[in-house]
Amino acid sequence: MGNPTVSGNTVTFTIKWDNSWNVTTGPSNWDAVWIFIKRQTCVSGSTSPWTHADLAGSGHSVTGSQLRVDTVADNKGVFIRRNAAGIGNINLATVTLTLATAIGSDNIGVYGVEMVNIPQGQFYIGDGRSDLRCFTDGNSNNPKLIDASVQSSGLGSVSNYQKDNLGSSVALPTTFPLGYNRFYCMKYEITAAQYVSFLNTLTYKQQLRMQRDYNANTTPPTSPVGTQFHCWPCGNRSANIVIATPGQSVTQLSPAVYANDFDNNGVYNEDSDGLGFPVVLNMKNFFAFLDWAAIRPMTEFEYEKICRGPITPVMNEFAWGSTDMFREFDMADRGKSTEYNRRSGLGATNCGTDTLYRTGMYATAISDRVHAGATYYGVLDMTGGVWESCIGGWGIDYSNFTTANGDGNLYENGDSNNNGSTDMTEWISNRIIVRGGGANWQDVWQDVSARQWTQFDNYGHYQGGRGVRSY
User: Fold this and answer.
1) Do 351 and 444 meet the contact criterion of CB atoms below 8 Å apart?
2) pLDDT tens string 152-209
3) Closest CA to 304 of 97, 176, 44, 124
4) Rounded distance, CA 268 to CA 443, Å?
Protein backbone atom coordinates (compact mmCIF):
# COMPACT_ATOMS: atom_id res chain seq x y z
CA MET A 1 0.00 0.00 0.00
CA GLY A 2 1.27 3.45 -0.91
CA ASN A 3 1.19 6.58 1.25
CA PRO A 4 -2.30 8.12 1.37
CA THR A 5 -3.29 11.58 0.21
CA VAL A 6 -6.30 13.40 1.61
CA SER A 7 -8.73 15.77 -0.07
CA GLY A 8 -11.71 16.84 2.00
CA ASN A 9 -13.44 13.62 2.95
CA THR A 10 -11.64 11.34 0.46
CA VAL A 11 -8.47 9.31 1.00
CA THR A 12 -6.49 8.01 -2.00
CA PHE A 13 -3.67 5.44 -2.03
CA THR A 14 -2.21 2.69 -4.21
CA ILE A 15 -2.43 -1.04 -3.55
CA LYS A 16 -0.98 -4.28 -4.93
CA TRP A 17 -0.41 -7.82 -3.66
CA ASP A 18 0.84 -11.19 -4.88
CA ASN A 19 -0.76 -14.61 -5.39
CA SER A 20 -4.37 -13.46 -5.45
CA TRP A 21 -7.28 -15.54 -6.67
CA ASN A 22 -10.97 -15.66 -7.46
CA VAL A 23 -12.07 -19.18 -8.45
CA THR A 24 -15.52 -20.46 -9.40
CA THR A 25 -14.76 -24.15 -8.91
CA GLY A 26 -13.31 -26.15 -6.01
CA PRO A 27 -13.36 -23.86 -2.97
CA SER A 28 -15.28 -21.29 -5.07
CA ASN A 29 -13.89 -18.37 -3.14
CA TRP A 30 -11.50 -15.43 -3.35
CA ASP A 31 -8.95 -13.50 -1.35
CA ALA A 32 -9.26 -9.81 -0.50
CA VAL A 33 -7.66 -6.99 1.46
CA TRP A 34 -9.56 -5.56 4.42
CA ILE A 35 -8.86 -1.80 4.42
CA PHE A 36 -9.56 0.47 7.38
CA ILE A 37 -8.54 4.00 8.34
CA LYS A 38 -7.40 5.67 11.57
CA ARG A 39 -7.26 9.41 12.26
CA GLN A 40 -5.59 11.62 14.87
CA THR A 41 -6.45 15.23 15.57
CA CYS A 42 -3.45 17.57 15.53
CA VAL A 43 -4.83 19.81 18.30
CA SER A 44 -2.70 18.27 21.06
CA GLY A 45 0.10 16.85 18.93
CA SER A 46 1.32 13.34 19.60
CA THR A 47 -0.72 13.06 22.80
CA SER A 48 -4.00 13.02 20.90
CA PRO A 49 -5.50 9.54 20.56
CA TRP A 50 -5.92 7.81 17.23
CA THR A 51 -9.52 6.84 16.55
CA HIS A 52 -11.22 4.68 13.97
CA ALA A 53 -12.49 6.63 10.96
CA ASP A 54 -15.85 5.35 9.72
CA LEU A 55 -16.41 5.35 5.98
CA ALA A 56 -19.36 6.64 4.00
CA GLY A 57 -21.79 4.07 2.66
CA SER A 58 -20.81 4.88 -0.94
CA GLY A 59 -18.38 6.94 -2.99
CA HIS A 60 -15.51 4.41 -3.09
CA SER A 61 -13.60 3.44 -6.23
CA VAL A 62 -10.58 1.55 -7.57
CA THR A 63 -8.92 2.11 -10.94
CA GLY A 64 -8.91 -0.44 -13.73
CA SER A 65 -11.16 -3.45 -14.24
CA GLN A 66 -9.22 -5.99 -12.19
CA LEU A 67 -10.54 -5.03 -8.73
CA ARG A 68 -13.76 -4.04 -7.00
CA VAL A 69 -14.67 -2.41 -3.69
CA ASP A 70 -17.08 -4.23 -1.38
CA THR A 71 -18.65 -2.13 1.37
CA VAL A 72 -19.76 -3.50 4.75
CA ALA A 73 -22.84 -2.68 6.80
CA ASP A 74 -21.04 -1.05 9.75
CA ASN A 75 -18.82 1.16 7.50
CA LYS A 76 -15.68 0.25 9.49
CA GLY A 77 -13.76 -0.45 6.30
CA VAL A 78 -14.01 -2.04 2.85
CA PHE A 79 -12.84 -5.20 1.11
CA ILE A 80 -10.79 -4.84 -2.07
CA ARG A 81 -10.89 -7.99 -4.20
CA ARG A 82 -10.80 -9.38 -7.73
CA ASN A 83 -13.74 -8.38 -9.87
CA ALA A 84 -13.82 -11.66 -11.83
CA ALA A 85 -12.28 -15.12 -11.91
CA GLY A 86 -8.50 -15.12 -12.10
CA ILE A 87 -5.27 -16.16 -10.38
CA GLY A 88 -2.00 -14.25 -10.03
CA ASN A 89 -0.53 -11.00 -8.79
CA ILE A 90 -2.61 -7.85 -8.38
CA ASN A 91 -1.03 -5.02 -10.31
CA LEU A 92 -0.75 -1.52 -8.88
CA ALA A 93 -4.16 0.13 -8.62
CA THR A 94 -5.36 3.37 -7.06
CA VAL A 95 -8.08 3.24 -4.42
CA THR A 96 -10.19 6.22 -3.31
CA LEU A 97 -12.32 5.90 -0.17
CA THR A 98 -14.87 8.41 1.07
CA LEU A 99 -15.03 9.05 4.81
CA ALA A 100 -18.18 9.71 6.79
CA THR A 101 -16.69 13.08 7.82
CA ALA A 102 -13.94 15.29 6.37
CA ILE A 103 -10.39 14.90 7.66
CA GLY A 104 -9.32 18.54 7.82
CA SER A 105 -5.82 18.81 9.30
CA ASP A 106 -5.91 15.43 11.04
CA ASN A 107 -3.18 12.85 10.68
CA ILE A 108 -4.36 9.84 8.71
CA GLY A 109 -3.31 6.19 8.62
CA VAL A 110 -4.52 3.54 6.16
CA TYR A 111 -4.11 -0.13 7.06
CA GLY A 112 -4.62 -3.34 5.14
CA VAL A 113 -4.99 -7.00 6.16
CA GLU A 114 -5.06 -9.79 3.58
CA MET A 115 -8.09 -12.01 4.14
CA VAL A 116 -9.77 -15.03 2.56
CA ASN A 117 -13.47 -15.45 1.86
CA ILE A 118 -14.93 -18.52 3.57
CA PRO A 119 -18.21 -19.14 1.74
CA GLN A 120 -21.47 -20.31 3.27
CA GLY A 121 -21.77 -24.07 3.36
CA GLN A 122 -21.84 -27.23 5.38
CA PHE A 123 -18.80 -28.94 6.88
CA TYR A 124 -17.79 -31.50 9.48
CA ILE A 125 -16.36 -31.03 12.95
CA GLY A 126 -14.25 -33.91 14.27
CA ASP A 127 -12.46 -36.56 12.22
CA GLY A 128 -13.58 -39.83 13.80
CA ARG A 129 -10.90 -40.20 16.47
CA SER A 130 -11.87 -41.34 19.93
CA ASP A 131 -9.17 -39.32 21.71
CA LEU A 132 -7.75 -35.78 21.58
CA ARG A 133 -11.10 -34.52 22.91
CA CYS A 134 -12.29 -34.22 19.30
CA PHE A 135 -15.80 -33.16 18.35
CA THR A 136 -18.21 -36.05 17.66
CA ASP A 137 -21.87 -36.54 16.80
CA GLY A 138 -22.57 -37.06 20.50
CA ASN A 139 -23.38 -40.77 20.19
CA SER A 140 -20.24 -42.25 18.61
CA ASN A 141 -16.84 -41.11 17.39
CA ASN A 142 -18.30 -40.07 14.04
CA PRO A 143 -17.80 -36.47 12.86
CA LYS A 144 -20.69 -34.04 13.28
CA LEU A 145 -22.17 -32.29 10.23
CA ILE A 146 -22.81 -28.56 10.61
CA ASP A 147 -25.40 -27.68 7.97
CA ALA A 148 -28.10 -25.06 7.37
CA SER A 149 -30.57 -26.72 9.74
CA VAL A 150 -28.03 -26.83 12.56
CA GLN A 151 -27.13 -23.17 12.07
CA SER A 152 -30.77 -22.09 11.88
CA SER A 153 -31.80 -23.97 15.04
CA GLY A 154 -28.55 -23.75 17.01
CA LEU A 155 -26.26 -26.61 17.99
CA GLY A 156 -27.93 -26.95 21.36
CA SER A 157 -26.58 -29.04 24.21
CA VAL A 158 -22.98 -30.22 24.33
CA SER A 159 -24.29 -33.76 24.02
CA ASN A 160 -25.12 -32.97 20.37
CA TYR A 161 -21.47 -32.49 19.42
CA GLN A 162 -19.27 -34.10 22.06
CA LYS A 163 -19.76 -37.50 23.65
CA ASP A 164 -17.56 -36.61 26.64
CA ASN A 165 -19.44 -33.34 27.37
CA LEU A 166 -16.33 -31.33 26.52
CA GLY A 167 -18.00 -28.22 25.17
CA SER A 168 -20.08 -25.26 26.29
CA SER A 169 -21.81 -25.71 29.63
CA VAL A 170 -24.81 -23.88 28.13
CA ALA A 171 -26.54 -24.81 24.86
CA LEU A 172 -25.22 -23.02 21.75
CA PRO A 173 -27.95 -20.86 20.14
CA THR A 174 -28.49 -19.69 16.56
CA THR A 175 -26.55 -16.50 17.31
CA PHE A 176 -23.34 -18.43 18.00
CA PRO A 177 -20.88 -18.50 15.04
CA LEU A 178 -20.96 -22.21 14.22
CA GLY A 179 -19.19 -21.67 10.90
CA TYR A 180 -21.96 -22.44 8.41
CA ASN A 181 -22.51 -18.83 7.39
CA ARG A 182 -19.99 -16.94 5.28
CA PHE A 183 -17.17 -14.90 6.81
CA TYR A 184 -13.66 -13.67 6.05
CA CYS A 185 -10.53 -15.05 7.72
CA MET A 186 -7.08 -13.47 7.87
CA LYS A 187 -4.86 -15.17 5.28
CA TYR A 188 -1.88 -15.03 7.67
CA GLU A 189 -1.35 -14.83 11.41
CA ILE A 190 -0.86 -11.35 12.91
CA THR A 191 2.57 -10.19 11.78
CA ALA A 192 5.23 -8.12 13.49
CA ALA A 193 4.69 -5.26 11.02
CA GLN A 194 0.94 -5.23 11.70
CA TYR A 195 1.44 -5.33 15.45
CA VAL A 196 3.90 -2.41 15.36
CA SER A 197 1.36 -0.41 13.35
CA PHE A 198 -1.19 -1.18 16.05
CA LEU A 199 1.16 -0.15 18.89
CA ASN A 200 1.96 3.14 17.19
CA THR A 201 -1.68 4.25 17.22
CA LEU A 202 -2.08 3.74 20.99
CA THR A 203 -1.90 6.34 23.72
CA TYR A 204 0.84 6.18 26.36
CA LYS A 205 -1.57 4.59 28.85
CA GLN A 206 -2.66 2.00 26.30
CA GLN A 207 0.94 1.19 25.38
CA LEU A 208 1.76 0.77 29.06
CA ARG A 209 -1.17 -1.62 29.35
CA MET A 210 0.18 -3.68 26.43
CA GLN A 211 3.19 -4.53 28.63
CA ARG A 212 1.03 -6.50 31.05
CA ASP A 213 2.11 -10.03 31.87
CA TYR A 214 5.44 -9.61 30.10
CA ASN A 215 8.39 -7.65 31.48
CA ALA A 216 5.88 -5.17 32.89
CA ASN A 217 8.47 -3.60 35.20
CA THR A 218 11.31 -3.35 32.70
CA THR A 219 9.94 -2.24 29.33
CA PRO A 220 7.55 0.69 29.75
CA PRO A 221 7.13 3.10 26.81
CA THR A 222 9.72 5.42 28.40
CA SER A 223 12.50 2.82 28.05
CA PRO A 224 15.64 3.70 26.04
CA VAL A 225 15.92 3.32 22.29
CA GLY A 226 16.41 -0.32 21.31
CA THR A 227 14.63 -1.79 24.33
CA GLN A 228 12.72 -4.91 23.36
CA PHE A 229 8.97 -4.67 23.73
CA HIS A 230 8.05 -8.34 23.67
CA CYS A 231 9.49 -10.82 21.24
CA TRP A 232 9.43 -14.17 22.97
CA PRO A 233 11.44 -16.13 22.03
CA CYS A 234 14.11 -13.54 21.20
CA GLY A 235 17.32 -13.95 19.22
CA ASN A 236 17.18 -15.47 15.75
CA ARG A 237 13.95 -17.39 16.40
CA SER A 238 11.26 -14.71 16.22
CA ALA A 239 10.37 -11.08 15.61
CA ASN A 240 12.21 -8.36 17.54
CA ILE A 241 9.98 -5.38 18.37
CA VAL A 242 11.85 -2.49 19.97
CA ILE A 243 11.35 1.11 21.06
CA ALA A 244 12.55 3.47 18.33
CA THR A 245 11.57 6.70 20.10
CA PRO A 246 10.90 6.64 23.87
CA GLY A 247 7.64 8.02 25.18
CA GLN A 248 7.51 10.42 28.08
CA SER A 249 5.45 10.52 31.25
CA VAL A 250 6.75 13.58 33.11
CA THR A 251 5.46 16.77 31.49
CA GLN A 252 2.92 14.97 29.33
CA LEU A 253 1.88 11.45 28.43
CA SER A 254 3.48 11.06 25.03
CA PRO A 255 3.47 7.55 23.50
CA ALA A 256 6.55 5.71 22.30
CA VAL A 257 7.26 4.85 18.68
CA TYR A 258 7.87 1.14 18.16
CA ALA A 259 9.70 -0.59 15.31
CA ASN A 260 11.02 -3.95 14.12
CA ASP A 261 14.74 -4.76 14.30
CA PHE A 262 15.18 -8.49 13.72
CA ASP A 263 18.74 -8.09 12.42
CA ASN A 264 19.54 -6.02 15.54
CA ASN A 265 21.54 -3.38 13.65
CA GLY A 266 19.73 -0.36 15.05
CA VAL A 267 18.22 0.53 11.66
CA TYR A 268 14.51 -0.06 11.96
CA ASN A 269 11.82 -1.54 9.72
CA GLU A 270 14.20 -2.73 7.02
CA ASP A 271 13.24 -5.61 4.75
CA SER A 272 15.58 -7.78 6.85
CA ASP A 273 13.79 -6.96 10.13
CA GLY A 274 11.32 -9.83 10.20
CA LEU A 275 8.27 -7.75 9.30
CA GLY A 276 6.43 -10.88 8.17
CA PHE A 277 7.07 -13.00 11.25
CA PRO A 278 3.99 -13.95 13.29
CA VAL A 279 3.90 -12.38 16.75
CA VAL A 280 3.44 -14.20 20.06
CA LEU A 281 0.68 -12.51 22.07
CA ASN A 282 -1.11 -12.95 25.35
CA MET A 283 -4.87 -12.93 25.08
CA LYS A 284 -5.53 -9.36 26.20
CA ASN A 285 -3.18 -8.01 23.55
CA PHE A 286 -4.59 -10.43 20.97
CA PHE A 287 -8.19 -9.31 21.57
CA ALA A 288 -7.14 -5.66 21.57
CA PHE A 289 -5.50 -5.98 18.15
CA LEU A 290 -8.57 -7.66 16.66
CA ASP A 291 -10.90 -4.98 18.03
CA TRP A 292 -8.56 -2.26 16.71
CA ALA A 293 -8.74 -3.85 13.24
CA ALA A 294 -12.56 -4.09 13.44
CA ILE A 295 -12.53 -7.88 13.25
CA ARG A 296 -13.21 -10.60 15.84
CA PRO A 297 -11.85 -13.93 17.14
CA MET A 298 -12.81 -17.12 15.35
CA THR A 299 -14.59 -19.97 17.09
CA GLU A 300 -13.12 -23.45 17.12
CA PHE A 301 -15.99 -24.54 14.84
CA GLU A 302 -14.91 -21.93 12.31
CA TYR A 303 -11.31 -23.10 12.67
CA GLU A 304 -12.25 -26.61 11.53
CA LYS A 305 -14.31 -25.30 8.61
CA ILE A 306 -11.47 -23.07 7.42
CA CYS A 307 -9.13 -26.06 7.47
CA ARG A 308 -11.15 -28.82 5.83
CA GLY A 309 -13.95 -27.05 3.98
CA PRO A 310 -16.84 -29.30 2.87
CA ILE A 311 -14.60 -32.34 2.38
CA THR A 312 -15.14 -35.51 4.40
CA PRO A 313 -12.62 -35.48 7.26
CA VAL A 314 -9.37 -37.42 7.03
CA MET A 315 -8.46 -39.01 10.35
CA ASN A 316 -5.39 -37.34 11.92
CA GLU A 317 -5.26 -34.72 9.16
CA PHE A 318 -3.43 -31.43 9.38
CA ALA A 319 -4.68 -28.14 7.92
CA TRP A 320 -3.55 -29.09 4.40
CA GLY A 321 -5.86 -32.12 4.34
CA SER A 322 -3.35 -34.96 4.79
CA THR A 323 -1.20 -36.57 7.49
CA ASP A 324 2.05 -35.52 5.79
CA MET A 325 4.41 -33.28 7.76
CA PHE A 326 7.85 -31.88 6.82
CA ARG A 327 10.05 -30.08 9.39
CA GLU A 328 13.55 -29.79 7.91
CA PHE A 329 15.12 -26.33 7.67
CA ASP A 330 17.86 -24.74 5.60
CA MET A 331 16.79 -21.10 5.65
CA ALA A 332 17.77 -18.41 3.16
CA ASP A 333 17.14 -14.64 3.32
CA ARG A 334 16.33 -14.98 7.03
CA GLY A 335 14.01 -12.23 8.22
CA LYS A 336 13.39 -10.80 4.75
CA SER A 337 10.20 -10.67 2.70
CA THR A 338 11.88 -13.22 0.42
CA GLU A 339 12.72 -15.65 3.24
CA TYR A 340 12.44 -19.25 2.10
CA ASN A 341 13.45 -22.79 2.99
CA ARG A 342 15.91 -24.40 0.58
CA ARG A 343 14.32 -27.71 1.49
CA SER A 344 10.76 -28.66 0.72
CA GLY A 345 8.33 -31.46 1.38
CA LEU A 346 4.68 -32.32 1.84
CA GLY A 347 3.05 -30.52 4.75
CA ALA A 348 5.91 -28.13 5.51
CA THR A 349 5.60 -26.59 8.99
CA ASN A 350 7.62 -25.32 11.94
CA CYS A 351 5.91 -27.56 14.52
CA GLY A 352 8.41 -28.67 17.12
CA THR A 353 11.29 -26.59 15.71
CA ASP A 354 11.13 -23.82 18.35
CA THR A 355 11.55 -21.28 15.53
CA LEU A 356 9.20 -18.88 13.78
CA TYR A 357 9.47 -17.99 10.10
CA ARG A 358 7.81 -15.66 7.61
CA THR A 359 4.07 -16.22 7.44
CA GLY A 360 2.94 -17.99 4.31
CA MET A 361 6.54 -18.79 3.40
CA TYR A 362 5.75 -22.00 1.53
CA ALA A 363 2.99 -20.56 -0.68
CA THR A 364 4.18 -19.59 -4.16
CA ALA A 365 2.62 -18.96 -7.55
CA ILE A 366 2.97 -22.66 -8.40
CA SER A 367 2.65 -24.47 -5.06
CA ASP A 368 -0.22 -26.87 -4.46
CA ARG A 369 -2.17 -27.08 -1.20
CA VAL A 370 0.02 -29.68 0.54
CA HIS A 371 3.34 -28.04 -0.38
CA ALA A 372 2.04 -24.59 0.59
CA GLY A 373 0.64 -25.80 3.90
CA ALA A 374 -2.72 -24.26 2.95
CA THR A 375 -6.22 -25.02 4.13
CA TYR A 376 -9.00 -26.02 1.72
CA TYR A 377 -9.86 -22.33 1.26
CA GLY A 378 -6.26 -21.09 0.93
CA VAL A 379 -5.59 -19.83 4.48
CA LEU A 380 -1.95 -20.37 5.48
CA ASP A 381 -0.20 -21.69 8.61
CA MET A 382 -3.32 -23.01 10.34
CA THR A 383 -1.17 -25.93 11.45
CA GLY A 384 2.06 -24.60 12.92
CA GLY A 385 3.26 -21.02 13.04
CA VAL A 386 1.79 -19.94 16.37
CA TRP A 387 -1.17 -21.56 18.13
CA GLU A 388 -4.53 -20.33 16.79
CA SER A 389 -6.55 -18.73 19.60
CA CYS A 390 -10.24 -19.61 19.28
CA ILE A 391 -13.45 -19.15 21.24
CA GLY A 392 -14.33 -22.51 22.79
CA GLY A 393 -13.14 -25.10 25.25
CA TRP A 394 -15.05 -27.25 27.66
CA GLY A 395 -16.92 -26.95 30.93
CA ILE A 396 -17.49 -23.20 30.51
CA ASP A 397 -20.29 -21.07 29.11
CA TYR A 398 -19.38 -19.49 25.78
CA SER A 399 -22.91 -19.52 24.40
CA ASN A 400 -23.33 -15.73 24.34
CA PHE A 401 -20.49 -15.15 21.89
CA THR A 402 -21.85 -13.70 18.63
CA THR A 403 -20.76 -12.59 15.16
CA ALA A 404 -20.29 -8.98 16.33
CA ASN A 405 -17.09 -7.53 14.85
CA GLY A 406 -14.76 -5.15 16.65
CA ASP A 407 -15.63 -1.48 16.34
CA GLY A 408 -12.08 -0.22 15.78
CA ASN A 409 -11.71 1.48 19.16
CA LEU A 410 -10.38 0.39 22.55
CA TYR A 411 -11.06 1.34 26.13
CA GLU A 412 -8.85 4.06 27.59
CA ASN A 413 -6.75 1.39 29.31
CA GLY A 414 -6.16 -0.48 26.04
CA ASP A 415 -8.60 -3.35 26.55
CA SER A 416 -10.92 -4.52 23.80
CA ASN A 417 -14.41 -3.10 24.19
CA ASN A 418 -16.30 -5.05 21.54
CA ASN A 419 -15.31 -8.31 19.95
CA GLY A 420 -18.20 -10.74 19.80
CA SER A 421 -19.16 -10.21 23.43
CA THR A 422 -19.96 -7.41 25.85
CA ASP A 423 -17.80 -9.00 28.57
CA MET A 424 -14.32 -9.28 27.10
CA THR A 425 -12.61 -9.61 30.49
CA GLU A 426 -14.42 -12.88 31.09
CA TRP A 427 -13.71 -14.13 27.57
CA ILE A 428 -10.02 -13.36 27.78
CA SER A 429 -9.53 -15.18 31.06
CA ASN A 430 -11.71 -18.25 30.62
CA ARG A 431 -13.05 -19.00 27.16
CA ILE A 432 -10.15 -19.50 24.79
CA ILE A 433 -8.94 -22.77 23.31
CA VAL A 434 -5.82 -23.01 21.16
CA ARG A 435 -5.79 -25.11 18.00
CA GLY A 436 -3.35 -26.22 15.30
CA GLY A 437 -0.12 -26.49 17.26
CA GLY A 438 2.85 -24.15 17.26
CA ALA A 439 6.62 -24.09 17.11
CA ASN A 440 6.87 -25.74 20.53
CA TRP A 441 4.86 -28.90 19.72
CA GLN A 442 5.42 -31.81 17.37
CA ASP A 443 2.85 -34.40 18.41
CA VAL A 444 -0.82 -35.17 17.80
CA TRP A 445 -2.04 -31.87 19.22
CA GLN A 446 -1.35 -30.30 15.83
CA ASP A 447 -4.21 -32.28 14.25
CA VAL A 448 -7.12 -30.19 12.97
CA SER A 449 -9.54 -31.93 15.34
CA ALA A 450 -7.35 -31.91 18.48
CA ARG A 451 -8.90 -29.94 21.37
CA GLN A 452 -6.40 -30.45 24.18
CA TRP A 453 -5.36 -27.03 25.41
CA THR A 454 -7.45 -24.20 26.80
CA GLN A 455 -5.82 -20.79 26.84
CA PHE A 456 -2.29 -20.26 28.14
CA ASP A 457 -2.51 -16.44 28.33
CA ASN A 458 1.26 -16.03 28.35
CA TYR A 459 4.02 -15.69 25.79
CA GLY A 460 5.82 -18.95 26.53
CA HIS A 461 3.70 -21.21 24.34
CA TYR A 462 3.92 -19.57 20.89
CA GLN A 463 0.30 -18.47 21.18
CA GLY A 464 -1.21 -15.84 18.89
CA GLY A 465 -3.31 -16.30 15.79
CA ARG A 466 -5.59 -14.31 13.53
CA GLY A 467 -9.08 -12.88 13.34
CA VAL A 468 -12.17 -13.23 11.18
CA ARG A 469 -14.90 -10.85 10.05
CA SER A 470 -18.58 -11.61 9.67
CA TYR A 471 -20.37 -9.81 6.80
Assistant:
1) no
2) 999 999 999 999 889 999 999 999 999 999 999 999 999 999 999 999 999 999 998 8
3) 124
4) 37
